[in-house]
């Protein structure tokens, strides 16, 4: 990718006429010089955002994978969560995190080798911030995920019982200003989205974006860690709110977009929460991640043992060889 980027910059620069400065040419070519500088800046900008990927068939295949996987994930996950909540169990909330874990794990296992397994603008955004993917690929991924979400919820709307669809707002992310039965307050949802997204990033993404630990753990265990962090976040969110009909934190703005566009109303009124919360969490996590230790914990093999240091201090001896 770096070589392609540099080739784009070099080829674009070579295409620009070698204009002399106004001093060297008596000011006659000043206009051409300014134009060449602007063209060179534009070429560098295109290289920085990875514009060359727009011409890559592999990138579009990966985007198609993201769209199809997101649609399937929305259909499977939403139907499963609604089934859990409407199961008649004494405490159906406890079933939801396990459903999220199993489904997320299976989809990650399949899609990570193909497209990176994002299926959410949250993971795409943090991947772009950390330089794992280019901004061009990130923009296409987010668009594909949103299209996939809308497609998935269109299928759900076509097959779901109308009473269930109305009761659970088509599995969407419901927000009500007074914290009514169909959802929670916007400020509560914002804090939950921020905190739970940060939890998933800190546990899951820290492992997933670490090449050394990925190699040590393997694909299966990395997918387990990411999926379990998502299940944990959902469990925390549905237990602290006390809302029987609340299906947990969104963790995925695309998941909330589909129902909001199809049903509107309260879902659309508070939709901004499910974009702002996660993206603030991504920004803060990125700031933290660049300051995490690079080499891990350095073991000192007992050199600073408390008893040893105490004896050396009171004995007046130097404790280290």
UniProtKB/TrEMBL annotation:
Transmembrane segments annotated in the record for this chain: 68-88, 94-117, 138-160, 189-210, 217-238, 269-288
Subcellular location: Membrane
Keyword tags: Membrane, Transmembrane, Transmembrane helix, Transport
GO cellular component: membrane
A GO molecular function held by the record: channel activity
Keyword NAD (UniProt): no
Keyword Transmembrane helix: yes
Superkingdom as given in the UniProt entry: Eukaryota
Pfam families found in the cross-reference section: MIP
Membrane topology: Multi-pass membrane protein
Similarity field: Belongs to the MIP/aquaporin (TC 1.A.8) family.
Protein name per the record: Major intrinsic protein
Lineage of the species this protein comes from: Eukaryota, Viridiplantae, Streptophyta, Embryophyta, Tracheophyta
């Amino acid at each position: 990718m770096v070589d392609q980027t540099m080739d784009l910059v070099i080829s674009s620069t070579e295409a620009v006429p070698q204009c002399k400065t106004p001093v060297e040419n008596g000011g006659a070519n000043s206009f051409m010089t300014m134009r060449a500088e602007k063209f060179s800046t534009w070429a560098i900008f295109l290289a920085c955002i990875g514009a060359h990927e727009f011409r890559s068939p592999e990138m579009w295949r990966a985007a198609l994978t993201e769209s199809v996987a997101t649609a399937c994930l929305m259909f499977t996950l939403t139907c499963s969560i609604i089934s859990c909540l409407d199961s008649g169990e004494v405490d159906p909330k406890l079933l939801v995190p396990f459903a999220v874990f199993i489904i997320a794990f299976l989809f990650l296992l399949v899609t990570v080798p193909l497209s990176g397994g994002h299926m959410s603008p949250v993971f795409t955004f943090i991947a772009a911030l950390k330089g794992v993917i280019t901004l061009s690929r990130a923009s296409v991924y987010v668009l594909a995920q949103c299209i996939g979400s809308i497609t998935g919820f269109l299928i759900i709307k076509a097959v779901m019982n109308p009473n269930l669809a109305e009761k659970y707002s088509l599995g969407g992310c419901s927000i009500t200003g007074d914290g009514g039965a169909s959802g929670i307050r916007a400020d509560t949802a914002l804090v939950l989205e921020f905190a739970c997204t940060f939890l998933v990033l800190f546990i899951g993404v820290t492992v997933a974006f670490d090449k050394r630990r990925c190699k040590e753990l393997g694909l299966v265990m990395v997918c387990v860690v990411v999926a379990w962090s998502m299940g944990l976040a959902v469990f925390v969110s549905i237990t602290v709110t006390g809302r029987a009909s609340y299906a947990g934190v969104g963790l995925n703005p695309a998941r909330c977009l589909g129902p909001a566009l199809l049903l509107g109303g309260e879902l659309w009124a508070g939709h901004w929460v499910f974009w702002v919360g996660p993206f603030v969490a991504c920004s803060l996590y990125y700031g933290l991640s660049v300051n995490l230790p690079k080499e891990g914990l350095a073991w000192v093999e007992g050199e600073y043992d408390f008893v040893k240091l105490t004896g050396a201090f009171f004995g007046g001896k130097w404790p280290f060889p």
